[in-house]
Amino acid sequence: MKPCVLHVDIDAFFASVEQIRNPRLRGRPVIVGSGCIASCSYEAREYGLKAGMPLRQAKELCPHAVVLKGHYRTYRCFSRRIFEHCRRLSSVVETHLDEAYCDLTGSERLLGDPRGAARRLKREIRDETGLTVSAGIGTNRMVAKMAGATGKPDGLVMVEEGREADFVRDLPIGRLPGVGRKRLEVLRKLNIDTIGDLRALDRDSLKEMFGADGEALHERCRGRDSRAIDEREIPESISRQTAFHEDTADIEKIE
Fold first, then answer.
1. How many Å apart are CA 214 and CA 190, to the nearest integer?
2. Which of the following is catalytic: 46, 99, 161, 185?
3. Which of 98, 115, 191, 245 is 20 to 30 A from 78 via CA?
4. Which pLDDT does position 196 carry in this prediction?
């Protein structure tokens, strides 16, 4: 049976929710976070803003941005509604705060083509919540997530069976799961800039450099990922180096 994983990622989640809650914010650069950016709208990203950036730096790049402290409970409610739609497609769903993995293996007879099922899901989510999601489909969770990321925002990308290695080959090495900041520095010193470049290092070399993780990198740079979908609920807490207020989000600056 051909494996099939659907990855669903809510676009600019916190900021998009705030734009829905307050129509005056639509089309404007919106930042959610305290101390650093937890989420920012696509209008803000046009100025170079991104998650994790200190607010002081963000305000220098985009001084007219609207900064909100956030409201986690509201975001959690939106997440739950979206993931209820995901569970109508699959009985095996792994959820995080703003993304989900759905195991669609063996569902084609019931759901039809995975792309059609994903389009229907995207439409249902948008009609009910007003939010857009990006969707990726692949034979494993890594490829599905990376596929969706290439189509953001509001995209749908499917990587067919047998194309996994070709799909990941030319992507930046920093996109590969397991390559964080420190490992990225090491690999760039070896002139490894793309995921395909990493294939020049054999399994033993990667294992010597990164231990057990090196074996995983050896598989992932070839588009292979054996991690299973783990059924779980949205976490009770959030960790994005930011703090949210329990009440309605406060506007620090709005013009």
1. 15
2. 99
3. 115
4. 98
Q: Which of 65, 110, 59, 100 is nearest to 79 (CA)?
A: 100
pLDDT surpassing 80 at residue 224: yes
How sure is the predictor about 231, in pLDDT bands with cuts at 50, 70 and 90?
confident
Is residue 244 scored above 60 in pLDDT?
no
- Alpha-carbon distance 77 to 129, whole Å? 10
CA distance 125 to 103: 18
Residue 170 CA, distance from chain mean position? 19
**Which stretches of the chain are DSSP H helices?**
13-21, 42-45, 55-61, 72-89, 108-111, 114-129, 141-150, 164-169, 181-189, 203-210, 212-220
Q: For the chain, how many helices (H) and strands (E)?
A: 11, 9
Q: Is 43 a catalytic residue?
A: no
